[in-house]
Structures are given as structure tokens and as C-alpha cells.
Amino acid sequence: MFGYRVRGAAVAAVFLAGFAVSCDAELGASDAPPAASSAAAAASAAATPSVSSVPGSAAPSPAAPSPAAPPASGGPGASALPGTPPEKVRDAFAGLQATLNDACTPSECAYFLGRVYDELRGLDAAMKADPKGPGHFPEPIALIAKLDAELGGDRSFNNLKAHQTLLIGTRDKINTWMQGHPDDYR
Predict the structure, then answer these.
(1) How many CB atoms lie under 10 A from the CB of residue 126?
(2) pTM (2 decimals)?
(3) What is residue 18's predicted lDDT score, i.e. its pLDDT?
(4) Pair 87, 38: CB distance under 8 Å
(5) Residue 30 DSSP symbol
(6) What single DSSP character describes residue 48?
(7) How far is CA 87 from CA 36, 42, 79, 102, 122, in A?
(8) Which region is the signal sequence (predicted)?
């Protein structure tokens, strides 16, 4: 549970730092920095203290459920800067796989469901932007499209919770498909 808060704080810190840098400097096309990798964000997550570990800070009560899932965490496909291309399919898939051992616990359910949704959206963006083309990943893209149609654009915790079985099932089916097609994302 604590690790999610640390990771979220680290992602927020990385995003804000990138945003601050992009606001302070005008970058030309030739000197634009490459997109940050998931590994770099994960490494900085371990070094960043969470809000609850800072003395005098008030962390949200785990007993009080969030009315909406947390905002996008900067996972795969989420661009810190406008115009930044989505991550590679392998990186986006690794982010999705990182959710396989997690579950919807009472204190972290909103975060977990939001993260699975974000990872699926990031993988969708990566597959559609892949040089092989979206036709190379027909089943995962179709599964995500079906999920999006069921969710109706509502990313709130209540809607994700109501569609939890479909959300997790979509993640698991895509994981199985990708495992059966390793050459498609390596």
C-alpha cells in the first residue's frame, strides 16, 4: 500500500519537474529531450518520500473512499509534454504486467483500478503508434475498444468499480495474447 503512494508522489514530482523545465526553456526540435522511461520513474519512486511520511502532513484517510479514481499517473502512453510520442509497446506492456500481482484492496481500490485503466490506455496508444501499425495488434486493440465502449468515457471510481470484472478481464486477456506473441513487442 505504501509503495503506491511513494510511486504516485514520484511520478507527480517527475511530471512537475518536467513541466517546470518545459515552461522555462523553449526547446528547438533538435534539442528536445527524450521521453522519460518507466524504469527511471520507478527508480526515482523509491527515493521520493510519500506525503504520509513527511512530518506534519496529512495523508488521506484510507477509510474514506475516493469519489473518483486518481488522475492518469504518467504511465505508458501518457506524455509529460505535448507532442511527446507514446512509449514503445514493450514498455507499455511492462507497465500493464506490473499490475498483475496487485488487487483491489479496500484502501487502494481506486488507485488500483485507475492504474489498470491508465496502463491499458497507454498500451492502446503505444500499439496504435507502433511502426508495425495498429493492424499488428488487432485483438488487444479490439478488447480495449470494447472496454472503452462499456465505460462510456466515465473514468470515475464508481464506474470502474462497477466494471471491475471487465477491466481486469481485459487486462488478463491482453496479457495472455501478448505472451503468445512475444515477437510483436520485443
Answers:
(1) 23
(2) 0.57
(3) 53
(4) yes
(5) G
(6) S
(7) 9, 15, 8, 22, 8
(8) 1-25
Q: Are 89 and 185 in contact (CB under 8 A)?
A: yes
CA distance 106 to 104: 7
Print the SS3 string covering 31-42.
HCCCCCCHHHHH
Q: Could you tell me how many residues make up the chain?
A: 186
- Residue 29 scores a pLDDT above 90: no
The cell numbers describing 80, all together, are: 509529460
| Rounded alpha-carbon distances, angstroms, from residue 138 to 61, 125, 127, 135 | 42, 13, 9, 5
Collect all residues with Cβ–Cβ distance below 8 Å to 10 and sequence separation of at least 6: 41, 44, 45, 46, 47, 48
Q: How far apart are CA 83 and CA 86, in angstroms?
A: 9
**Cα distance between residue 167 and residue 160, in whole Å:** 7
Amino acid at 114: G
Which residue matches cell numbers 524504469? 39
What is the CA angle 77-81-86, rounded to 5?
20
Backbone angles phi and psi of 60, in degrees to 5: -60, 145
**In this structure, which amino acid lies at residue 82?**
P
In the structure grid, which three cell numbers stand for residue 128, read together?
A: 496504435
What digits encode the pLDDT tens for the residues 69-120? 444 444 444 444 566 777 899 999 999 999 999 999 999 999 999 999 999 9
